[in-house]
Amino acid sequence: MFFAIIFENKTNAILYPRLAYTIFFGLTFTHLLRELIVGLQLRPPFPFKKWWLLTIVIVSVIVLFNLATSAIVEWRHLYNPKIKVSVEQRFLSNLIFDSPLILAWVSVYYVWHYVELGTKTELQKVRLEGLVKELELKTIKSHINPHFIFNALNSIRALVDENPARARTAITELSNILRSSMQAEKSETVPLERELNIVKDYLALEHIRFEDRLQIEYDIDEDTLDQPIPPMMLQTLVENAIKHGISKQKSGGLVRVVSDYRDNHHELIVQNTGQMNLTGENSDGFGITSTRNRLKLLFGGKATFDIRNTDNQMVEAIVKMPVQAGLHI
After folding, report:
1. How far, in Å, CA of 156 to CA of 152, rounded?
2. pLDDT for 167-211, tens place per residue?
3. Which of 100, 160, 226, 254 has the maximum number of C-beta atoms within 10 A of its C-beta?
C-alpha cells in the first residue's frame, strides 16, 4: 500500500484485490514454510550442514508464492490492460519486488527464535547456578564438628554428679546449638544477635572443658546486633579458634569476639591466643574454606575474609560484610 500510494499517487480498482490476494498467499505460504521448518527440524539450533536444506525450502516457498500471486493476477485480470505484460515477466517482477516479504518473515522468525533460545539458555544457567549455590550452602551449613559434641557430652557427664544444675544448663546450651545447626538450612542469613547467642552457648560448654585455661571477651557494638550474617559462620570461626588455638596452648588463652562498623562495612573479628602455621595443613581447613565460600556465594565481591597472625601472639580472623541498608544509623 505504501509503495502503491507513493509511486502511483492514487489507488485504483485493482489495488485492494491484489493486496488481499498478496496477504492471503503470504499467510498461507509463510505458514507452509513454518511447517516445513518445524517438520524438517530446521528451527534453531540446527546443524550447520542443514543450511543447504533450509535454503532449498525457502527458495521453493518463495517460488510457489510468486507463482500463485502471478497466476491469480492473470486469472482475475488484476492488471492494467494498457501496460499488460506476459506471465513470465510478471513472475520475474513479483520475484524481485515481493520476495523480500518472505525473506523479511524468515529473518524475523529466526531472530525471534534465537533470542528466545538465548533467553531460555540464560534462565537455565541462572537456575543451575542457583541450584549449585543452594547445594553448596546446605553442604557448608550442615557441617558440625562431631568432636565438639563428644567433648560436650563428656563434660556434661562429669557435671551430672558434682554440679547437676550446671549439667542441666549445659544440656540446654548443647540443645540450642544443635537446633540452630538444623535450622541453618532454612535461611541464608540470620541476625548477629541470634548467632551470638549460639556462640555464647558454645563457649560456655567449652569453658566447662577448659575451665580456667579459657578466657572469653566480647566487644560488641549493640547497633550491629540486627545486622545479617551467614548462620553458623561465627560459630565456625570461634570453633576454629578453640580447636587450632586454645587447645594447643598448655596454659590456654583468650578468645575475643568483636563486632563493629568500620569503613562502611560490618566488621566481625574473632581473635585467639596462639600463632597460625601458614604453611600447615590447617592453614586452609574447613572453617576458613567454608567462610570464604559462603561469603562469596552470598555477597559476591562485596564481602572479604582474612586470617592472620598479629604481633601480640594472637590469631585474628576478620570478616567484612556490606551493611544492610536501613539497619545502621
Report:
1. 6
2. 898 898 888 878 777 665 567 788 999 989 989 988 988 888 888
3. 254
Please tell me the total count of domains within the chain: 2
Rounded to whole angstroms, the Cα distance separating 147 from 243 reads 10
d(CA 199, CA 229): 13
pTM, full prediction: 0.55
Nearest alpha-carbon partner for 193 in 173, 213, 220:
220
- Decide: 110 and 44 in contact? Cβ < 8 Å: yes
Helices 286-299, 99-141: crossing angle, 10 deg rounding:
140
ω before 230 within 30° of 0 (cis)?
A: no
In a domain, 124, yes or no: yes
- Name the residue among 44, 34, 37, 40 with its Cα closest to residue 118: 44
Q: Is residue 328 part of a domain?
A: no
- Of 138, 172, 205, the residue at which a domain comes to its end is 138
> Same domain, yes or no, for 57 and 94?
yes
